[in-house]
Protein 1
Amino acid sequence: MSKAMDRLYTNYMAPRYQDNELFSAFKYTELKGFDYNDGDGTLSRRDPSKIIKENGKYYIWYTKRATVQPPVGYSNAHLATEVIPSTDWDLSDIWYAASKDGIHWEEQGVAIARPKKPALGWRSLSTTDILKWEGKYYQYFQAYNEPSGTKGDHCPVVAAYEDSPDGPWTIVDKEIIPNGEPETWDQYSIHDPYPLVYNGKVYIYYKAAYGDRPNYLVGAGVAIADSPLGPFKKHPLNPLFNSGHETALFPFKEGIAALVLRDGNENSTIQYAPDGINFDIAAVSALMPFAAGAYVPDAFDSNGNGRGITWGVSHFIGRQGENIGKTRKYSFLARFDCDLSLDLHDPEMKKSRLYFHPDVYFQRKLSKKQMKRITGEE
């Protein structure tokens, strides 16, 4: 048997993708209730948390930036001030919204504001995620003391806690997961903290980029603790992923599944680890959600019977056709739907063939440099 056919019958949950419980296409819907100042780049929402349901409402937290002008850009971070952002996630706070149907949202206000200088996070707070543990709620997020684009991205993870999802939140002014020792893969950054309860413990999956730009690699690992504020111990097999840019995971059967996209050789894959540690590719998909924050009903239930996900919120960066210059000026939230659930059978979500108008492909134009190389024009 060839290697390809062997993989088909041994690596995947079913030889036909239509029957693979960890294969899905993704569909997207614009959200109602959020304003973006007509796309002028001064207002941005991005990096949504996983979604929880409490008191008959869905709750979500996210990075929100409201600044006097759009970001000056990563390479121009030296031009940033205390009111002018360097990047889309600079000068941000953690906000939250609630919804009854997952499409119509009401912004509730700021959940966690930047503390006063010089406390951790005085410059920016971003990329939060939520944990519920023994009746209390915890958030984990990145705390910046410098603009992103300088050494700001070399920021630690801190936490906040409260008795209610509506706050007010108390910030724990200490590093929850410290950066690694020199010469280790996560020595510079601990990003995208993503908590789950698994095997009765708190697992926080996180991303790190190792090496120097532009020749760097992005991976993800996990830190484990007996309680929400630690101490957290990093797993000796870290990094667990060789690809991916954000962390988006959910309990599935006895293990953990992950959406892996954007960076690395294994981008645009859905992966699975029966032990939550050793991940293999379970499916290959397309148009996967950026920075996915899924509704994960059993995210905090470590009973070893994960049911999967059917929807969530992700972000897009800019909009095609808007006259705001480069598309990285701001981000906006959108809903995604899928069938990565043991409790749903939706054949429409199991279609792998995607058809687009030719204009979608022609948006991927050759650069001026590439065109000159082909035509020989100077």
Protein 2
Amino acid sequence: MTTQLSDDQRGFFRRLIPPTPLSRRLATQSMLFSTGEGAFNTGSAVFLTQVIGMSAAQVGLAITLVAVAEFLFAYPAGRVVDRLGPKRMWAGSTVGRAACFVALPFVDGFGQYLVVGVVFAVFGSLGGASHGAYILDVLPPKERVETQAYMYSSLNLGFTLGAAIGGLALATGSLTVVRYTPFFAAALMLANAYWVTRLPPAPHDLRVASGERRERPPGPSAVRNRGWILVNFFTGVLWTNQVLLNIVIPLWLVEATDAPWGLLAWLFGTNTVLCIFLPAYTSKGVRTISDALRYTWISSAFFVVSCLITMYTHSTVGLITVLLVWLGHVTVTGAELAISGATWAFQAELMDPRRRGEYQGVEEVSRALGSLWAPWLFTGLAMSWFADGQGWLVIAAIIVVATIGLGPSVRIAEGFRDEHFPPADEDDTREDGTREDGTREDGDGTVGVDLSTEPA
């Protein structure tokens, strides 16, 4: 089994546009979603403290409890998605998120916010599982990694647009404007839900509609796939590059270097720009599981280099510090881009096509176990527990060990796949272009259904 990418000979700027109608529509959905989320998240600190009236400690506790709730709901949500179909649950969970945003302006205090947050976590778990299952189900194997790269770019573009809109709301200085910013997010979520309903049904959705999918699929469940659990645990460790990007390096800049605090804006700006323009290129080399493993080593190398560069800035001054801190942030962005392509390939190749929702749930749980500890541990290692930043070497060693662990974990997952999965992926096509479920794959990679009434 391989994940093939199309040979795209378009120029640089044309390659920034997804190549097929379905990939363009999925990228548009990603941008709608992240614009709404980004608009609220930008002013969330002000909203939670000044509008709802929580203390900083209560905010931290509430966010932690909501994260734990989403973690606990991840696996049951995947089971629900497999039973009811990914597209239906994706659209429904998005409407649920919109309802939570509508409720937020009327929330008063910690207890009420926690109730809304836990409900949001339920819909978040359903949305994550159904979104991932739908993408892998509806796309032909050769387009899965490439399309997810375009969606990742659009996601970052949407967060940037949302941040700008949220910034305008904050710039008014009016708490009334900030209070009702969630209404804007809710409106975009509803538009997003409508957009999802207009996407073509995936093969899994068609089977659910026919009643075939009501019965439990044959074979062992995802929780028995030890290789899949280990792959996602170690992948979660490699995804702690986000902890370096958003927490540790900014704290290091402020407390351990003489770099100006204004550099933080340039760091995050550089990361955003790179994650908008580069995913379609950096994921192009991921064609097989072996390629994905190679990309994990590339990600690990970038991660380690970032640790070494950042550690060195403890003893530099002036412009040298500025340049090195910026370079450390750029290299950890390289780690993010490389592990993205590898993660998408693992998802495409190592999931049971009959249980994608369930596998998404197990993935969420395993990746969380591989990363939830990182903010506390990495901050302590870098900032407190070692002299002169020597803890950065321990962080780098953790990443190398995780990368080493991925190799045998993938082999275990491949063995499980070969023993228990169907002989051929259910959405492979026959020579006449007909899928195993009877639908047809058109030349542009979309599923053969009538799209004439759907948005372009």
Protein 3
Amino acid sequence: MSTRQPDAAKGGKFRAPLLFAVMAALIVMEGLTTGWDSALVILNMGIISAIMALGLNMQWGYAGLFNSGVVGFTALGGLAPVLISMPPTGGAMSQGGWQILGALLIAVLALVVATKLNHRLHGAARAAGVIAALVIGFVLFRAVFDPAVARVQAINPASQGYLGGLGLPVLLAWPVGAVLAAAAAWAIGKTSLGLRSDYLAIATLGIGEIIVAVLKNEEWLDRGVLNVTGIPRPWPVPYEVDLQADPGFVARMQGWGIDPVTGSTLTVKLIYMGLFGLVLALLLWGAQLALKSPWGRMMRAIRDNETAAAAMGKNVTRRHLQIFMLGAAVMGLAGAMMITLDGQMTPASYNPLRYTFLILVMVVVGGSGNNWGSVLGAVLVWFLWIKAEAWGPEIMNLAISHMSEGPLRQHLFDAAPQMRVIVMGLLLLLVLRFSPRGLLPEK
């Protein structure tokens, strides 16, 4: 404890309010210089990133579990609005939907049978039985699955070609996204937790990439790289065209001296900001209560010394699985919120650089183990990530202004947008050098 207290008190009690005030000033400056539309776009995605960072902080900050597959849990959460809120594709279930579900059931049964045989048989009989169960299951699965998928994808492939969803309100998809991510975390945790920490890092990295690959290629599920568009908006967010068609709204905007088109865009983004901010506030409130509770103190004790915690009678593996699922659920919730904001599901956009590395940087910069630090780090890092792409060409123009025309000058100018990666590296180095436990260290 003696190594933590001086750091925690270093900035004084006004450190957090001052840093959040600086962050707010940056957002206001963006609104005054570039435009409020740009500022709200950055802020909304910053809030969603803060929720992702909170989920990772629960795993890494509370329990010391290194998750290198944040992108996979986020993508699973993003699948939920497609499954829940999109209308069902007419005729898809009768053409092949039920057969697809049956094929998936065959795959599950084959795994269950292989597992049972692995436990009950011995020697060569066990190997032969497991291999036979898996091979037979695979053959049956493909025999049922492939023709069913072909029939489903043949239904109006230009705009559908997939099973569709349930047509329910999109707000219901948010907790479903959390459940999907938590279920994946359970499957990973049951096989990886309890082993060395590097096994979990490798497992989450691999599973994350597998999830993204499945979403890119299984068109019957989410249209793959063809994308699902037109995902409904949550209540109470209106559509801009509806606001522009409302005489009362138009009159109000004109009375304020605002163009109705601009006013409708800003209104929608402000409502999204309020909705996302409410979710973040509830999660932050719950996370703070949990962190200060006996459960939170137990998790940090396990993180600091697993051997001592186990000697005190704590089931370390079970608690690790619990916090791992909880953090993944928060990431899945953020993934569902992001797809709702975008209005479309684009599996090809799930990039580990954005949805794993950047989220980790947010937690490290903000302060691992501090929920408020994760929120601050998320909004700050996202702001710099967006602005660095715009600042890159200007900085590069200044740097190469003395150079003569040629391939080197052109190459440097073309690489200017990638300066955002350099900026993230410099930010991380500066924070680790001058505040190694983050801008808001754990208390």
